Amino acid sequence: MNTAEEKVYRNRVDAGELASFQVRVKETDLLIHADTDLASTARDALLRYRGYLEAYIGLNPQFQHVLAPWKAEGPLPYIVREMVRAAKAAGVGPMAAVAGAISEQVGSELLKASQQVIVENGGDVFIHTQAPVVVGIYAGRSPLSMRIGLRIDPGGKPMGVCTSSGTVGHSMSFGKADAVCVTSRSCALADAAATAIGNRVGSKSDIANAVEFGKAIAGIDGLLIIVGNQIGLWGGLELVALEGKNG
After folding, report:
1. Helix (H) / strand (E) containing 218
2. How many C-beta atoms lie closer than 10 Å to residue 24's C-beta?
């Protein structure tokens, strides 16, 4: 992304009065909101969970490249197990769940020190707040980009809100959707499902079938698909207008 795109993209979540800070380790770039600045704790958690994943990939190099669910044998690090489980449910490779899984693991660690936590990782957001939050939908050149958002009410429980795109960013997608956003209590599953659904959207005419496919993925609560000026929507999602927040 260029600087202008990143500025808009990183303005996706209205975090209210929470403290905001950024943590980066290698390719992972987290924007975090919490009750206080917990950057050091977040960095330690990120290093630990990345370490578990990197060690597993070192022993199983194909894990990083396979595009189908991973057939794991023996004990697995927790983050790897969550990625494998999410990928199996969505019918994709395990790395399709990596950003959501990292957001979730770091966010869960921060909940030991903060009652409210939001972790954004490349469009994949872990949310644990007492009050509802609004997540803006960045959809590249779509006229709806950052004009609409989702009002998310986690109810004091973890919630994943993950977005995949075939036209924005560097994530692998076989589709052409400007944005596919999925909500689930599992952030890893939301991430994997967003990829799987997005893979089935080559044009506006594919929206309805992609929605039907997404509805069949056990564990997701809702989904939103944007292609150009058209929307597909399913589940208990509340759309809100974001007038004046796209630039």
Report:
1. none
2. 11
Q: Which residues contact 210 (CB under 8 A, 6 or more apart)?
A: 177, 180, 197, 198, 200, 201, 225, 232
Q: What is the pLDDT along the chain (247 residues), one digit of tens a residue?
A: 444 454 455 556 767 789 999 999 999 999 999 999 999 999 999 999 999 999 999 999 999 999 999 998 889 999 999 999 999 999 999 999 999 999 999 999 999 999 999 999 988 999 999 999 999 999 999 999 999 999 999 999 999 999 999 877 555 567 899 999 999 999 999 999 999 999 999 999 999 999 999 999 999 999 999 999 999 999 989 999 996 544 3
Query: Considering the entire predicted model, what is its pTM?
Result: 0.92
Nearest CA-CA partner of 137 in 182, 199, 185? 182
Which residue bears the tokens 């929206």?
207
Structure tokens at 15: 């975090």
| Tokens representing residue 13 in the block | 């979540």
Q: How far apart are CA 55 and CA 67, in angstroms?
A: 20
- The number of beta carbons lying within 10 Å of the beta carbon of residue 187 is 33
Domain boundaries, the chain: 3-241
Q: For the range 13-17, what are the long-range contacts, defined as Cβ-Cβ under 8 Å and sequence gap of 24 or more?
A: 13/118, 13/120, 13/125, 13/127, 13/133, 13/134, 13/135, 13/136, 14/133, 14/134, 14/136, 15/118, 15/133, 16/131, 16/133
Assigned CATH for 3-241: 3.10.520.10
d(CA 29, CA 9): 13
